[in-house]
Amino acid sequence: MARNRMIKKEFWTSEQVMNLTIPARLLFIGMWNQADDEGILKNSALQLKAQIFPCDEQITVNDIKNYLNDILNQGLIAVRVKFSVDSISLIY
């Protein structure tokens, strides 16, 4: 179930966030809503596309993969193996 999350004002001026494209920023925010209470969600570009950009046909699964890579390169997420399931951890 999606959770309510707050975006602090510092988000918008974080250099890590400012280095992302606008769609990657929106994906990152959407990931907060989809993550569990520990900040973990399944590492699936297809699921993230369906959950966060369900009717945006111009955004492809490949775009999501690229945005995830950009977010990862900024140090905002970490890819981890948990219980033998590939997952993404949000870095707070």
Structure description:
There is one protein chain. The chain is an alpha+beta fold and 92 residues long. The protein is built from four helices and three strands. It has helices at residues 15-18, 22-34, 45-52, 61-73; strands spanning 40-42, 77-82, 85-90. A three-stranded antiparallel beta sheet has the order 1-3-2, covered by helices on one side. A hairpin with a 2-residue loop joins β2 (77-82) and β3. α3 packs across α4. It starts with 14 loop residues before the first helix and ends with a strand. The model has no long low-confidence stretch (mean pLDDT 89).
Characteristic key phrases:
92 residues; alpha+beta; three-stranded antiparallel β-sheet; 4 helices; 3 strands; 41% helix
Structural class: alpha+beta
Biggest sheet, strands in spatial order? 1-3-2
- Terminal-residue CA separation: 20 Å
Which stretches of 5+ consecutive residues score pLDDT under 50?
A: none
Number of distinct helices: 4
Largest sheet: 3 strands, antiparallel
Number of strands: 3
Helix content range: 40-55%
Oligomer: single chain
Which outline best applies?
Answer: globular
Spatial extent as radius of gyration: 13 Å
H/E order of the elements?
HHEHHEE
Range of strand content:
15-25%
Average pLDDT reading: 89
